[in-house]
Specification:
Layout: E1 4-8, H1 12-24, E2 28-32, H2 35-44, E3 49-52, H3 61-69, E4 76-80, H4 85-93, E5 98-101, H5 106-129, E6 130-133, E7 136-139, E8 144-147
Parallel strand pairs: 1-2, 1-3, 3-4, 4-5
Antiparallel strand pairs: 6-7, 7-8
The structure holds calcium ion (CA).
Calcium ion (CA) binds at residues 10-11, 53, 55-56.
């Protein structure tokens, strides 16, 4: 799977560990250590998923997520030592797709990332093959126009 993942994590060892497991899956990884850097990256480059820590220097993961959601619909997997119900409800409520608590199994995290990527990339691909307007469906691959 050729996909690009942004890791926003200030603990380098954890970022490296996640990175290692994702690279094994053939995923391209970019690491940043703050939410501000993460937002800049999102602005300039295309990613298919973000792995996000909550306790960060500067803006925290929740603030990053709120800002990121204004311009990006990519899946976001939170990986955090904060494991209260409130943190999870807040994270998922403002747009995270998954919440993994530290300590975590990098193997299981990589599997979750892969699952989210698969769904996201599939939905992107099918959205590209068809253009809908009113009752019409234009199939770009079959060069067919259908009326519903
Ligand atoms: Ca942290």
């Amino acid at each position: 799977m050729r996909a690009r993942v942004l890791i926003v994590e200030d603990e380098i060892e954890i970022a490296e560990l996640i990175s290692l497991y994702l690279k094994r899956e053939g995923i391209e990884v970019t690491q940043v250590e703050s939410g501000e850097d993460g937002l800049q990256k999102l602005e300039k480059e295309a990613f298919d998923l973000a792995v996000l820590d909550i306790n960060l220097p500067g803006i925290d993961g929740f603030e990053f997520l709120q800002a990121a959601r204004k311009k990006s619909a990519i899946p976001v997997v939170i990986v955090s030592a904060r494991d209260t119900d409130e943190d999870m409800v807040l994270g998922l409520g403002i747009g995270a797709d998954d919440f993994v608590t530290k300590p975590f199994s990098p193997k299981v995290l990589a599997a979750r990332v892969r699952a989210h990527l698969r769904r996201f990339l599939d939905s992107q691909a099918s959205a590209k093959k068809f253009i809908r307007f009113g009752p019409f469906n234009l199939d770009l691959e079959g060069y067919a126009l259908q009326k519903e």
